[in-house]
Structures are given as C-alpha cells and as structure tokens.
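Quick start: read one record
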Amino acid sequence: MNYQLIEDQNSLNNLCEQLSQATVLAIDTEFVRTRTLYAKLGLLQICDGEQLALIDPLAIDDLSPFWALLTNENITKVLHACSEDLEVFLTAGDCKPVNLIDSQIMMSFLGHGLSLGYAAMVKHYTGIELDKSESRTDWTKRPLTEKQLNYASADVDHLFSIYPRLLAELTEVGFLAYAQIETQSMIEKKFTPIIESEMYLNIKMSWRLNPKQLNSLKYLASWRFQQAKKRDLPIGFVAKDHTLMALAQSNPNSVSAMLALEGAEALDVRHKGKAMLAVLDQAEKAEVSSYPEKVNRLDEYPGYKQIFKKVKAFLITASEQNGLAIENVASKKQINQFLTWQFDLNGARNSAAKVELITDWRNELFGQALLDFAQQGFE
C-alpha cells in the first residue's frame, strides 16, 4: 500500500479525524535510544487498511490528535512487541493506550514462543521476506530516505492484513481473552510510576548489605535516578551498580578513599565523587529506625531448589491440561514471585503488586489448586 507522509498540523488533524472512524488500526513507532534515558521518537506509522500514513513528530508541534486515537476505546489498536512503543507513548505523549493488543503476545498463544519477531511473523503468514536493513537507522535524522520510509510503512501494512487471521486463529483456540489480559498487564506495568526509594532493590548483590549499608545504597540509587532523569542519561551513565555497592559497603569519607575501593569505577568517582559523598552524608543523618530491613534471598530459603522444581512440574501439568505452552503460563520470574509471596520474604504479603500466578486467567485455570499445593507443603 502507498503511504502518505504527514509533516504539518493540518494534515495530521485531518488524518486523525478520518481514522477516528476506524475499527482497527495497525500502529508502530520508530525511535532512537542510544545514550539517553528516554527514547527519542522519530516516526509514527499508522494504517486502517485504506490509508497508510507516516507521521513526522519532529515537524509537528501538537500530536494530541494521534494520542486521541490511542485512547479511543472504540478502536482496536494492534502493535507488535509493543513494550518499547509503550514507553514512547508515556514519555512523548503521557498517553496510556486503551483497547490495544500485541500481536507478538497473540502469536505466543498460538505456539510461536514469547519473542517472535515481526519479520518472522510476516514470513509465517505471507511468505514475504522483509528487508530489515534499516532497523538500526537514526530515525531522528532528516531528511528520511525513501528506503527508510518504505521500511517503516511495511511495519504497519503487513500487520493490518495479518491481524484478522491472527484474531480468527486465537479465537478458535480460545485464548484471545488471555492475550488481551497479558497485553493489558504489560501496559499497567509500563505505566506504574517508579518508586525511587525502592530502586536499590533492583541492584544485584544488595542482599549482601546490612541495614545501614542498605540505607546508603537506597540514597545513592535514588540520587542516581534523579540525575538520570534530569540529564536524560541511561542510569549506568551516571554511575554503575558496582560503584554504588562499593560506596554503600565502605562509606568512604573522601574522593581519594573512593578511588581506592575495589569495585568502584574510577570514571564514576572522578565525575560524581563529590556529589556521591554528599549523598552518603545525607544517608548518615537518617534515623536508624528508617533503615531498610536486610534483603532475604529466595534461593537461601530452606529447600528452595526442590520446591521450585515441584512448582514448575505442577505448572507444566496445568499448562498441558489447558492446551498451553509452559512459557505462556509461568516464567522463572513469576514462579519466584509466587514463592517470595508464599514465604512472605521481605514483606511480600504487604506488597501492592499482584502475584501473577494467582491472578486473572491463571487464577481461573489453576490458582486455587496451586494454593492448595502450597498449603500441603508442595508435596
């Protein structure tokens, strides 16, 4: 299908007014994310089967007509592997899509694995080999070449034509609702605000630290994230995890003492040493009663390995009984989340986060049986 390039406000307004009558829209984004915390939006692609448009976000000041399509509940939006697209919608438009489904998730429920690429899906349904040579291009550089624009248009052209077949197959096997719930779950995760005071928990080896050291790590991790946001830098560009761990562990009182620490990156210390000393000083002033509790490791829980194996075996059986692949039902992370909750490690029972294995469609299929299994001591 031929594309139209939208480069001014009037054209965008007219296009979006027409597309607001659509029932299904295939959507994609092109962006650049190399040395920044936030992805830089370079192009928006959209297709309703009759029109295919490439929208230049660098040439148009107000993208709200496009965001309005994403939040229009009467239109189904289909995207492929949309995790990063969601981040773009959040940071570029503060826009949380409604009635969206991910074709990669749909494919996974049809037995194609969790991470089937767009080109592989197109080849599966059409036999067409897509040219992926422009996948690493700089989408913020202008002018865009005809080859780039053709590449970008193919991403929604095929998606729109494949979607009805995908929908029919998924409806036939009875897993459409599951794919919709999984897509919605991904959207909710992406749009859940980051809790800065808990970022230290994402740093590997934090379990090695005592409460006082953890308090220092908490302050450092929060400071690092604020710096990354302020300067739009990847978190690791501000300071590496192992630098923060070394500082939290040793609590040095000078830049030269920092440089002598094993694990502390010299570049981090040279560029941010004084700032990090100030953060450590702040942490020192915190009340002992506010220190985080020591982090308990799930894999140190008595009998963890055997319990994990038993739970996985239980879930494999439950998957087979329901005609599903185990990768759709439970990842290692999801099993560990359930066990952390079951053993109430690190106050997991008080957490607002939902335990995925006993929520939504998984709960309907085997939730109570899994809880009973746990109640019986996984025997």
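The longest strand covers residues 24-32.
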